[in-house]
Every structure is written in structure tokens, then in C-alpha cells.
Write a structure and sequence with these properties.
- By secondary structure, this protein is α+β, with helices and mostly antiparallel strands.
- The protein has a domain of 114 residues.
- It is built from six helices and nine strands.
- A nine-stranded antiparallel sheet has the order 1-2-9-8-7-6-5-4-3, with no helix packed on it.
- A hairpin with a 2-residue loop joins strand 7 and strand 8.
- About 10% of the residues have low confidence.
Length: 233
């Protein structure tokens, strides 16, 4: 009897160990078969539940596309080319004589009312070639802008040289809140640009008369002999 018990006991223990091993393997297999998403979610969860999922990102603001010119649109191309090539003119001639012309301008050899651009500073650039009407007779000169200056008082000035002819002559124009003024030299004489009652006027300066007095002083000739006598030498 004792021998039978000794034989059966190892068999029972072996069977118990086998059953326990099989059950442990099934649990591990079930745990490893869980979806990755569940594992990732559990890994990011906070033990105390304080973390919250991130809000979805807002879509990026759409940038307004650049307005392009249709290469097949001939009218648009021509308008664009004209805008690039055109140069603003400082003033244009007109025939409105509703202002009182001062006597000194009325007595000038010639004068011309003009409409002056009020924004020369933004319209004129170095290198521009512009045309300036000077008289009612239709006299027009061509000027190339050579320099620009913004003065301390806020006035804007530009300078240029006449183009064409045997010689080049200087032109300078200054524009400020009180008006526009300029001096224009040509081979036929000098002109002045001024503002009268808000209107522009260009007039030719009268030439100096041949019999005008000298505008300089001649120092008197000193008498060296009398100077010596006065000092007793």
C-alpha cells in the first residue's frame, strides 16, 4: 500500500505542474495579443488622470494669391507697360487765366500758367527724363534729373540738366507746403517757376539792359605818395 502511494504521488505532482504551466502560457499569450493602440494609450495615461488629450490643430490661413497678368490679355499687358515706362511731369501747361497776374510777371517777355504736380517727391527719381513747358508759344525743354534733396525744413528739391543743344544748362525746383519754385536756365535765357494764388506760373526773366549800372564796386586807387607824406617819411 505504501509503495502504491509513493508511485502515484509523483504522477499527481507532475500533472499539477503541467496544468499550471499551460494556464500561465495562455495568460501571457492573451496579454501579448492586445492591440498596439490600447497599449500606447495606457502608456500615456496619467496615474491620477490629470493629462488631457491635445486639441486638433487649426488649419493654416490661406494666403491670397498674387494677381498675375494673363499673357494672352493684350490690353492688360499694354497698360502695365505704360505704367512702368511713364514718367510723371512736374507741371503741365493750361490756359486758365482766372488769377490776377502780378505786374512784374505780366511785363515779362513771356509767361505760361501751369498745373504743378503736388507730389514731386514721390513721382520724380534720379535719371528721369522730363519735359517742361515754358511759354505760350509752345517752347518746351527736356531735362534729365541728376539729384534729389530733402531739406531740413521738409522741402523737397530736385536738380537736373537740359538735354539737347550745344550746351547743358542747370534746372532746380523746390517744392514745399507754401508752393513750388524753380529756376530754369536755357540757351535762350532764364525762366522762373513760381506759385501765384495756388497756381503755377513760368515766366521768362527780362534781360538786363545794356546801359544798366555796374553791380560791383571798384575800390579807389590809393595815393602812395600822400600816404608817405602823412606819416612823415
Amino acid at each position: 500500500m505504501k509503495r502504491a502511494v509513493l508511485i502515484i504521488l509523483p504522477i499527481v505532482l507532475a500533472v499539477g505542474f503541467a496544468v499550471s504551466y499551460l494556464m500561465t502560457g495562455d495568460e501571457q499569450a492573451a496579454a501579448s495579443s492586445q492591440p498596439r493602440s490600447s497599449q500606447s494609450q495606457s502608456a500615456t495615461d496619467s496615474p491620477d488622470g490629470s493629462f488631457k488629450p491635445l486639441a486638433p490643430l487649426e488649419p493654416a490661413t490661406t494666403v491670397k494669391p498674387i494677381q498675375l497678368i494673363d499673357p494672352q490679355d493684350a490690353t492688360a499687358l499694354e497698360t502695365s507697360a505704360q505704367a512702368l515706362d511713364s514718367v510723371a511731369q512736374p507741371w503741365q501747361a493750361h490756359d486758365n487765366y482766372d488769377i490776377a497776374i502780378p505786374d512784374e510777371i505780366a511785363a515779362a517777355p513771356s509767361f505760361q500758367l501751369v498745373t504743378i504736380s503736388s507730389s514731386m517727391e514721390s513721382e520724380i527719381s534720379i535719371g528721369d527724363v522730363i519735359e517742361l513747358p515754358l511759354s505760350e508759344a509752345g517752347e518746351v525743354i527736356t531735362v534729365e534729373v541728376t539729384s534729389e534733396t530733402l531739406n531740413d525744413n521738409g522741402d523737397y528739391s530736385w536738380q537736373g540738366q537740359t538735354v539737347g543743344g550745344d550746351h547743358s544748362y542747370p534746372v532746380i525746383v523746390t517744392q514745399g507746403p507754401n508752393g513750388t519754385y524753380g529756376s530754369i536756365a536755357t540757351e535762350d535765357g532764364t525762366y522762373t517757376l513760381t506759385t501765384v494764388d495756388g497756381e503755377g506760373v513760368v515766366y521768362k526773366n527780362p534781360p538786363l539792359p545794356e546801359t544798366h549800372d555796374d553791380d560791383f564796386l571798384v575800390p579807389p586807387i590809393s595815393d602812395d605818395n600822400s600816404s608817405v607824406d602823412d606819416h612823415g617819411h
